[in-house]
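Researcher: Structure for this, please.
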Amino acid sequence: MTDICRNLNQARSSYYRRAAPKAIDAKAVQLRAAVRHTHTDVHATYGSRCMQVELNAQGFAVGRYKVRSLMQALQLKAKRPKQHRYPIAGKPSQIAPNSLNRQFNPTDTNTYWTGDITYIRTNQGWLYLAIVLNLYSRRIVSWAFSKQPNSELSVRAINLAVQLRQPKQPVLFHTDQGVQYSSDVFRRALAKHNINASMSRRGNCLDNAVTERFFRSLKSERVNYRQYKTRAEGMADIADYIEAFYNQKRRHSTLGNISPVEYEARQHKVTNASN
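Model: Predicted structure, C-alpha cell format:
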C-alpha cells in the first residue's frame, strides 16, 4: 500500500479517507422512497405543489423546490390535462334560470349540487356516466352508468344522491341544458325531491366549471391511460377512481389541500363542537 501511495504521490491517510465508504443518508433515502411511493399511489397525478403537501403530511419537512428537484432526478412526471378554450357567452335556458351563477363555494353542505354526463370509449361501445357533485366539499355523492345518454340515466343519479344524502333543506341542482336534464321525466324527479333546477347558459361550460373540471381530471388522470375491453371493466375502474381515489385521497387546493371526504369529516366535527 505504501508503494501505491508513493506512486500516486498521496499520503496513506488521504488514500484510506477516500477509500472509506460514505455514510448513507437514511433520511434522504426515506424521502426518495416516499416520493416514488406517493407518485405511484396517486397515479402520477401530483405535481411538485401537491407532492410537497402530501410529503409534509407524512412528516417530511421539505419545500416545493426540493420536491421538484427530487421528482426531476427520479424522472417522475405528473399527468397534465390538455388545455381547452371555452365559450364565454350563451343564451339562458327557457326551462330554468342560471340561479347558481357561478357560486361554486357554498357555506353549507348539500345546498348546491351540480351534475353532468360524459362518455367513455370501450371495445363494446360507448359508456355514459352521470354524476352528482356536492359543491361544498367537491365530493361526488352519486354516479350512474348506462349504454344510452338518456333521462333515465340522469334520474338514477339524482335519485341515488337524494337517497344517500337525504338533504334536510331544498337543494339547488345545476346542470347544462342537455335534454337529459330538461326533459319532463327529469323535472318531475326534481320536483318529487324538492330540488330546484338551475341551468348554464347554452354552450357555456364555465357556468358548470367544477363539474367540467372533475370530468377533465377523470379523463386526464385515469381514462386516457386505459383501454377498456368491456363496459363492465370501465365501470369498475371509474368507480374505483371516484370513490377510492378522488373522494378519499385526491387533494383539492380549494379545500385547503385535503380530500373531499376529509373536508366533510372536519366540518362535521366543527359543527358538532359548536352545537
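Researcher: Any notable elements?
Model: The chain has a mean pLDDT of 87. The beta strands are 112-122, 125-134, 139-146, 171-175, 195-199.
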